[in-house]
Amino acid sequence: MALRIVSTxxxxxxVKKHLLCIVRGVVSALHIPGHISKAAVSILTxxxxxxxxxxxxxxxxxxxxxxxxxxxxxxxxxxxQWRQMTALRLQREDLEAKRVEVTQMMKQVVTNAxxxxxxxxxxxxKKEGIQxxxxxxxxxxxxxxxxxxxxxxxxxxxxxxxxxxxxEDNTEVYSFNPEKSNLNCLCDCTEExxxxxxxxxxxxxxxxxxxxxxxxxxxxxxxxxIANGYNLxxxxxxxxxxxxxxxxxxxxxxKEVLSLSNIQxxxxxxxxxxxxxxxxxxxxxxxxxxxKTVIEEPFPLRLISVGRCYQPVTGILGANDLTNTVQxxxxxxxxxxxxxxxxxxxxxVFIQHQISKQLEQLNVKFRIIATAARNLEPWEQYCSxxxxxxxxxKKFIQVANVSIIGDYICRRLSIYGPHKESPxxxxxxxxxxxxxxxxxxx
Length: 442
Hints:
Blueprint: E1 4-7, H1 51-56, H2 59-68, H3 75-111, H4 118-155, E2 171-176, E3 194-196, E4 204-206, H5 208-227, E5 231-232, E6 238-240, H6 241-246, E7 258-259, E8 275-277, H7 283-290, E9 293-297, E10 301-310, E11 327-337, H8 341-361, E12 366-370, E13 382-390, E14 395-406, H9 408-413, E15 415-416, E16 424-432, H10 433-437
Parallel strand pairs: 5-10, 9-15
Antiparallel strand pairs: 1-9, 2-12, 3-4, 6-8, 7-8, 10-11, 11-16, 12-13, 13-14, 14-16
Helix pairs in contact: 3-4
Organism: Daphnia magna
Keywords: Coiled coil
Protein name: Serine--tRNA ligase, mitochondrial
């Protein structure tokens, strides 16, 4: 199957450069305040055309969304700021139109320079022009200040909730419990085969059978996905703050993403154009491949990237804990398709089914959980967690997940499908090798 992606700037993907964006302070890497717009290397304008409908026609649904997520977002103050920004924009446009009229009047007076009133008319028009220019300057400054607050808050709104997302509690949608699990005999997970190094509790090396298993699983699982119509790509290990913000992650939060120090040529995190280590099998890396592009064919587009994924460690680490490591070998899937809720859910079910088949072949006990709204990431509409049971820890631990994103990221990063509409995303971490190997008992 041929893959053809046309960039909106008519630059082909292999040579397309990352987009940079400079902003004042740590607010949003997606929005460039008007007073520093000339300092931007490249401007990407998120699509916020849906906001007006949200705060007028769907405000009750929006409030229910925020409540279900236990969000601290103050909706009433945001609506006031957004409407104030809109009113100022209309006033500014009105003043701009009046300035154009005054300019045209001046041209006509100069062209028809006759009579004793000519000098007086010119002086009156000049005075009116100066007054309009002063008013416009003062209004523009105020508009920029309100716009920076309102747009940044609009970009912090979480995604819509899918109608099938549980509101109260996590819900089990599938389980597999073999009579005798192979988990205890798949691998010899001894301290000699999983070596943690002293300088970091999350730096480790696999040797012997675990290392062989890692290679075998990565090859076998990825071949299964390619056989099911996924196109293998090599995504970048590093992305800019623009892409991180576009994915709904806090690019300045060390608990969410790994960032490089602010050194020369790497950009500045404080200015919103930092550089982040995410790994080629992460969602931001795959999204970076599509940012500011028009996908013409094939559609739907199914992509897979196999490699490393890097993310900050969360929680308390245990001794030789493979469930909470900075780096992991994993397979990341991304489906780009028509933004139809029912079709997106069917795609999610298909991916769930394929992951289930792969785990059933390993003959391990696992379950699939539909995640409650309060546990979703801001960019998720729906998420199912694939959890394998660990006999050693007597609990289920997530080894894969599948999420419906919809058009949330596409609207933020100018990703378009056929006919220039914003497509929908379904993504999955189809395999996290360290977490799966952590279930293997010594």
